[in-house]
Amino acid sequence: MGNLKMNQMPMQRLLLMITLVMVLPVGLAALPAALISDAQQAIASGATSAARSAASAIVDRAGLSAQDARALEDLAAVYAAAGLRDQAATLYNRAAGLLGDSPDEQQRASLVRIGEALQGLNLRTDASAILTRAIKITGKTSVDELNAQSLTTLGDLAFETDSLDQASEAYDQALEALGSGAAPARASLLVKMIKLRTHGVGRDSLRVLPQNLYDLEDSLDQDMAQASRWLDVAASLLLQLEAEVKSAQVEIILNKAQVILSGLDDLQLNAELANLQSLLASAMGNPSRALQVARNALVTLGSEASAGQRYRLIWQIARIQSEQGQTAQAIVNYERAISKLETIRGALLQGSTLVFRERVL
C-alpha cells in the first residue's frame, strides 16, 4: 500500500466528493454498493494499491448496464481528484461504453460530460471519440446545445494540438448548433474563436468577431463571467495588436471589463485587468504608464497574488526595464519571475496565456 499524492485537489474537497458519491443510489444488482464503498475507503485512506484493485474489480464486473454509468462516472471523478489518472480514465471509458446511442438527453449529456472529463485528463483521443459519438446521435447539423457543447470541446482539443483548421471548423459548427439563443454560451464561444483567429486562422474576421460579442451585450448579465470574457478577448487581441488590431479596440474592451469590475469585489480579476492595461500601455509606447500600472497591481494584490499573477506582472516589469536600458533591474526581476515557473508549470504546458515567448537581454 502506498500513499496517494492528493496534488490535484485539497483533501477536504476530495473527502466531500467521496461522501457525495456514497449517498448516490448505487443499489443496483450489477454493481453492488460494497464495491463502490471499497474503492472509496481505499482512496480516503491513501491505499493506492487497494484503490487500483477496487477500480479493476468494478470495471471487470459482469452484467453492468446503462443504469450503472452514472455511478461509474462519479467514482471516476473521485479517482481523478486523487491523482489516479489511469483508473479514472478506465472508469470513464467503461461508463461511456455502457451508454447507448439513443437520443435520450440524459445519456447524451453523460457522454458529453465524460468526454470533457477525459479532456481534463489530457486523454485527447478518448475524449474526441466519445464526443464525436455524442454528436453522431443527432447529427452535427442539429441545432442543439449538447451538440454545440461537444463541438466546442472538439474545437478545444484540436486547438490544443495546433490543428487550427479543424478547431475553426468545429467552432463554426458549434456556433451554428447554438442557433439564435443561449447568449452566454455564444459569448464564450466567440471568445474562443477570437483567440483562435489571433493564431492565424481566419485572421480577417478579427475585426468582426468582437462586434458580434458587442451585439450580445444586452443579452448577457454584466457579472464576473462577462468581465472574464472581456479580459480574455483583450488578452487575445493584444497578441496581434501591432499589425491587425487598433489599440483603441482593446482599450474599449478593457474599459467594458473595468466598468463591470468596479461593482465587484474581485481582487484577482482586477489584477488581471491591471496586467492587460500595462501590456496595452507598453504596446502603445507609454512605458512609464505600463510600469506604474504593473507595480501598483503587485502592491494591491500583496499576499493575495497567485503565483501566475506574480509571474506575469514581474515579467512585464522586467521586460519594460529591459526595453528602457535598465539592465540590472531587469535581470533581478526576470530571475524573480523565473522562480515562479515551477509552481505554474501545469498551466504553461496547457498553453496558458501566462506564457511570454521572447528572448531576454
Describe the structure.
The protein is globular and about 70 Å long. It has helices spanning 11-22, 33-45, 48-59, 69-81, 85-98, 105-120, 124-138, 145-160, 164-178, 183-197, 209-215, 224-238, 247-261, 267-283, 287-301, 307-323, 327-338, 345-349. It is 68% helix and 0% strand. With 361 residues, the protein is mostly helical.
- Quaternary state of this entry equals single chain
Strands, total number: 0
End-to-end separation in angstroms reads 50 Å
The secondary-structure class comes to mainly alpha
Percentage of helical residues?
55-70%
Radius of gyration based on Cα positions: 23 Å
Helix and strand run:
HHHHHHHHHHHHHHHHHH
Q: Give the biggest sheet.
A: none
Strand coverage percent: under 5%
List segments where confidence is low: pLDDT < 50 over at least 5 consecutive residues.
1-9, 22-29, 346-361
Q: What is the global morphology?
A: globular
Mean pLDDT: 84
Tell me the number of helical segments per DSSP (H or I, 4 or more residues long).
18
Pick out its properties:
68% helix; single chain; disordered N terminus; 361 residues; mainly alpha; disordered C terminus
Task: Provide the fold topology.
Layout: H1 11-22, H2 33-45, H3 48-59, H4 69-81, H5 85-98, H6 105-120, H7 124-138, H8 145-160, H9 164-178, H10 183-197, H11 209-215, H12 224-238, H13 247-261, H14 267-283, H15 287-301, H16 307-323, H17 327-338, H18 345-349
Helix pairs in contact: 1-2, 1-4, 2-3, 2-4, 3-5, 4-5, 5-6, 6-7, 6-8, 7-8, 8-9, 9-10, 10-11, 10-12, 12-13, 12-14, 13-14, 14-15, 14-16, 15-16, 16-17
